[in-house]
Specification:
Helix content: 10-25%
Radius of gyration: 16 Å
Distance between the termini: 20 Å
Order of helices and strands: EEEHEEHEEHEE
Strand order of the largest sheet: 1-2-7-9-8-4-5-3-6
Number of helices: 3
Strand content: 25-35%
Number of strands: 9
């Protein structure tokens, strides 16, 4: 949700197709906010609101933290109440704060999250990331992967989980950048399997 991206996680594109690419992300620290809302949009708003307070100084150091990109909303099947889906909304911490993240105020219910080095399949899409749109984009990525050499690389542990990366402020109307991410298990590329439920 950033107009001109500042810091972003380090990545290497290891494979590219016309409608998706495989990226290897390096280990990094993000701040993560759980959100048990029933919709992607509500969960993203709820989590981002708390993360925004944190970067504006709602932390024990009263540190103001520069905005980064993307805002990542991860959908985790079965992580919510009564086995419904749950969400985690995460913000990459700038390099300056990677080693020692400021401690958030307890009432924000957010915590640092170690994003392990791993691969993700990525599909880009424009427009606004709305509930029905993100599901369709995730399905399109799954279809593309099923027809590719990466079909057997989708993590069985992910059980249909995916993340939506948003790079622009809600005020930007044109040329919006969004992505759907799915974890990939590809040890031959140096990608170890991660457990998405740990988000």
């Amino acid at each position: 949700m950033v107009a001109g991206a500042i810091d972003s996680p380090q990545l290497t594109v290891v494979h590219s197709e016309s409608d998706f690419e495989i990226r290897l992300y390096r280990s990094s620290v993000w701040m993560s906010a759980p959100a048990l809302d029933i919709s992607f949009e509500k969960a993203t708003w709820n989590g981002f609101h708390r993360l925004f307070q944190f970067i504006q100084g709602a932390n024990l150091n009263f540190s103001r933290i520069p905005m980064t990109a993307p805002i990542l909303t991860t959908m985790v099947p079965g992580a919510g109440p009564l086995q419904s889906q749950g969400y985690y909304v995460s913000l990459y911490l700038p390099v300056k704060f990677q080693a020692t993240p400021p401690l958030p105020l307890p009432e924000l219910n957010i915590k640092p999250y170690e994003f392990s080095s791993h691969c993700v399949a990525v599909r880009k899409f424009s427009g606004f990331a709305k509930d029905d749109r993100v599901v369709k984009e995730a399905e399109k990525l799954a279809t593309s992967l099923s027809r590719s050499p990466w079909a057997d690389s989708i993590s069985s542990k992910s059980q249909g989980a995916y993340s939506i990366a948003q790079y622009n402020t809600p005020f930007r109307i044109a040329k919006r950048k969004n992505e759907v991410w799915v974890d990939i298990d590809a040890p031959e590329l140096g990608c170890k399997l991660v457990d998405v439920a740990a988000y």
